[in-house]
Amino acid sequence: MSIQHVKGLTTALLLGILMLGPLEAAPPYASWGEENLTTIKKDLWLSESGLYAEMAPDENGAPSHPSFMWGVGVQLTALAAASAVEPGKYLPETKAYADAIQVYWLKHNGVEGFDVQPGPKESDRYYDDNAWLVLALAEVFEVSKEQKYLDRAIATFDFVMTGEDDKLGGGLYWRENILRSKHTCTNGPAIVSALRLHQLTKDGKYLEIARRLYAWTNSRLQDTDGLYFDNINLEGRVGRRKFTYNTALMIRANCLFHKITGEARYLEEARRVSLAAEKFWVRENGAVADSGRFAHMLVESYLELYQESGDRHWAEVVEKSLTYVHDNLKEPNGRYPVTWERKMSPRREESMLLNQASPARAYWVAAEILTGKAADDRKK
User: Fold this and answer.
1) Which InterPro entries match (predicted)?
2) pTM of the model
3) Which of 185, 284, 289, 327 has the fewest CB atoms below 10 angstroms from its CB?
4) How far apart are CA 327 and CA 324, in angstroms?
């Protein structure tokens, strides 16, 4: 073949590509996530303890106390997701933080679990906080391959399950010290935690726990539109507010049930609930009408549904939402507002670890699933 012939074929190929239109590159999720984590470290890192502060220093430079456990869990998942994409850069930091937070681990009345703040102190433990830590530690185990993190995830799950009794027919409470109500924000992540532990240990008891909690949550806390109410108190009165994260974790649960069992009904339910959530919370411009601490979990559930179903619609929803968050909500100082629907006047409270780690988690999960190894594996 002559050089002229090769040049002709190359020109024809290029013209064909141009006629089809430009190939759209995915947003630089990893770069966004890196910027986000860099800002978090600059604003909130407590070098002496290896922990993160609850919020940025005040106007006098006085540091905040260490983050409450909810923020700890989201930050650890953000670091674990970053480690899945760039292990050389983030895995040492992820492991160090996972080890540092053991100062939150508290034994009380013979039962161990993560407290809301580092000890020594009076016990104040939340079952939902601990369910988030099960998920975080399971991911740290996956990226590090170190058994101690799986052991900690299992021990943390054992604490979560001490929150179950037979009042209202089952289900998990929200807070150890105040046994007044049972919340979707505990039961949803507990179901997902049980399914993840089943995947990692192959122990059937976790699948049975997941089935039991799933049936209870659907019977007590799911609305007819597929979305989930917030809680039910011991008198049987339902708190009817709806938050993205409650529905999101049940979408993830359905995706995992489908992956584990192969039963089509779970994937059908994940689709039904996801469409209802999109209609309820996702705006035409990509904004999600909820706080970022909740909304990032809906984004992640859509990514999980995309992986499980192959339906590109959910990847497109995520791309539009995260692009909106980055391009319209990010402040010049690198921080993000509390809500993911619109900009707000900057306040110190928005610097909370929970608020800043939420977009970081979403960016890094999107980087892995839409542009990283997971995306490459789907193309094979």
Assistant:
1) 6-hairpin_glycosidase_sf (IPR008928), Glyco_hydro_76 (IPR005198), MUG_Protein (IPR053169)
2) 0.92
3) 284
4) 5
